[in-house]
Amino acid sequence: MKIVLLGAPGAGKGTQAQKLVEEYGVAHISTGDLLRAAVKAQSELGVKAKEYMDAGKLVPDELVIGLVKERLAKDDAQIGFILDGFPRNTAQAAVLDTELAEMGVALDGALLVDVAFDVIVKRLSSRRTCRSCGYTAGPTVTVCPRCGGEMYQRDDDKPETIQKRLDTYQAQTEPLIEYYDGKGILIKVDGDRPVDEVYVDVKKELGL
Ligand code: AMP
């Protein structure tokens, strides 16, 4: 399984990715998680990335692409991978095409988790995320049910940043839907349903 996940922030890409990873053991490559880890470690890259993330903007391509290439080269990604949050614009999609061609692999699909923006705004503003493993849940969950870590509200899930992230998504990431449709590998699922129902569809559409 080698797939790209598409969809607005908060559409449920990460949740569906986690379920696929648990069931099929493929690598979950989330650029948001990789960047948050760099911010937490206060690495040079993390310090640079933070200002863009806090502003709801995309981190410059040259910072993100290196992270993804490094991750794709690891052993677990050779079995299969789910790219979650990458590519985020057409330039990143072109780099990914080149990288995968060099690795001699082809994408099985680009899976769009489709959710209306008004639903997204509600979801993001009530979302809490585990500081340790990235698990997400609603506002009443204070301890991560998966690893026991602390649940917190991401800075960019605060109302003042949500709209900016959606604007960024619309301007830069949404064109990728057409990009992958043009390649004949776009798969669409309705993400405005309970997680397990969406997952049934995801598996069906991926032929699993
Ligand atoms: P996410 O967890 O995918 O919502 O990502 C959180 C933030 O990390 C985004 O709002 C961007 O600032 C940054 N980010 C994540 N993935 C990328 C990417 N592929 N390209 C540029 N910035 C990214």
Written account of the structure:
This protein is of the alpha/beta class. It has 10 helices and 8 strands. The chain has helices at 13-24, 31-40, 44-54, 61-72, 76-79, 90-103, 117-126, 159-173, 175-182, 195-205; strands spanning 2-6, 27-30, 81-84, 109-114, 128-130, 136-137, 151-152, 186-190. The chain has a 5-stranded parallel sheet with strand order 2-3-1-4-8, with helices on both faces. Strand 5 and strand 6 form a beta hairpin. Helix 1 (13-24) packs across helix 10, helix 2 packs across helix 3 (44-54) and helix 7 (117-126) crosses helix 8 (159-173). The protein is globular. Bound molecules: adenosine monophosphate.
Features:
alpha/beta; binds adenosine monophosphate; 208 residues; 5-stranded parallel sheet; 3-stranded antiparallel sheet; 51% helix; single chain
Number of strands: 8
Task: Report the sheet with the most strands, covering strand number, pairing sense and barrel closure.
Answer: 5 strands, parallel
Note poorly predicted spans.
none
- Oligomer kind: single chain
Taking the alpha carbons of the first and last residues, their distance comes to 9 Å
* Mean pLDDT rating: 95
How helix-rich are the residues, as a percent range? Answer: 40-55%
Going across the major beta sheet, what is the strand order? 2-3-1-4-8
- Structural class call reads alpha/beta
Radius of gyration equals 16 Å
Shape: globular
Bound molecules: adenosine monophosphate
Give helix and strand order, one letter per element, not per position.
EHEHHHHEHEHEEEHHEH
- Fraction in beta strands: 5-15%
